[in-house]
What we know:
Elements: H1 3-9, H2 18-32, E1 36-47, E2 53-58, E3 63-68, H3 70-73, E4 85-95, E5 100-110, H4 113-129, E6 148-152, H5 157-169, E7 175-179, H6 187-201, E8 206-211, H7 225-233, E9 238-242, H8 250-254, E10 257-258, H9 262-269, H10 273-308, H11 312-354, H12 359-397, H13 400-405, E11 410-413, E12 431-436, E13 439-444
Parallel strand pairs: 3-5, 6-7, 6-8, 8-9, 9-10
Antiparallel strand pairs: 1-2, 1-4, 2-3, 4-5, 11-12, 12-13
Helix pairs in contact: 5-9, 6-7
Enzyme class: hydrolase
Protein name: Exodeoxyribonuclease 7 large subunit
Domain OB-fold nucleic acid binding: 17-109
Amino acid sequence: MNSDRFSSASGGDVVVPVSALNRAIASMLERSFPLAWISGEVSNFTRAASGHWYFSIKDAQAQMRCVMFRGRAQYAEFTPREGDRIEVRALVTMYEPRGEVQLNVEAIRRTGQGRLFEAFLRLKAQLEAEGLFDPEHKRALPTHPRAIGVITSMQAAALRDVLTTLARRAPHVPVIVYPAPVQGAGSAEKLTAMLDAANARAEVDVIVLCRGGGSIEDLWSFNDETLARAIAASAIPVVSGVGHETDFTIADFAADVRAPTPTAAAELVSPQRVLLLRELDQRHAALARGFGRLMERRAQQLDWLARRLVSPGERLAQQRTHLRQLAIRLASAGSRASAQARAQFNVVQMRWQRMRPDAAAQRVQVESLGRRLEAAFARERERETTRVAGLAARLEVLSPQRTFERGYAALLDAQSGAAVRSPASLKPGKRLTVHLAQGSADVALADVQPRLSEGF
């Protein structure tokens, strides 16, 4: 049954059961009020045998009953007590059997924790955007530190855990504690001062920044911006071991390595003495085996050299014999080469004698060829002279000058120099150049009387 049915029935006589009314009110409440955070003081807290939590939250003017079912309550970080200031993330609903409005709680936290977490997220986002947490800025932890620094409170249980772990794993490595409070007013500044002091003294190779678990308020000193920047700027690698495995702080992100617990941080920075001794024994055994093999190879090489070693007198006799053999071979090789060269020279000399030219006969032949060449040149010149004379005579006959001497003339346009071939191109006033047998003249036409061509 919904609100529309109630509104339509309000003017009639429809009877509505209480259960239906409560169901409709509960549905309307769940639709009208979204999931929200509500703050107040705890009162009348009860844990039922089923595991459900029942309590009320109140302020100075009002209160509201709350229920947190077992499936949600088992994941709560703390159990509220009478008078605690808390914030609940809840849905407004109604317990239909009694008609009571209540809050169905899904999550619970202490008052102020939400604001702290939001501040934590804002600072984390800011520093991450600046690149303070980039992996390339992280420094590697030393494999064999000469000294380990621990920054924590002298009264902290985490210090005892760290010192116990270091004494068990690496009793040979000295530990220097830089005491500083790990919570409360001014603790972040003192932690930062101790970190700066450790860097200034440069007496340790790695620093462990640690404390035990606690609420977000207890761990808030490790969410300080100044401390985070000091960790990132530290020249000495820093391992953060703050709280439990589920606790994260800004110092964890700024540190070079984040350990889930202080004990785990101590294990990260300390080489295990037993393993180091075992590795040392293995390396010693390997070195001994290698040295033994080297000695065996050297002894074998010495035996081989001893077999090759001969007495100096015997060695000189061998070299003297070898030298005589070389002298004989050298003499034989010299005489044989000289005989071969002499024989080859004789052969070449005979071939040259056979191939030697007869200079007198060749000279007579050259003189005969010279006379024949001169006669051929004379006949050729005579023929060419005759041919040139004939061509000159023909050219003389065809010369324009001879044509002019027979009474002809050549008319050229005075401007273009083109020959005048048609009477039609002759106009009164036209200037012409006339070429005659004894020269040329420029004339201007006064009158032109064209005639048809009738020949000469």
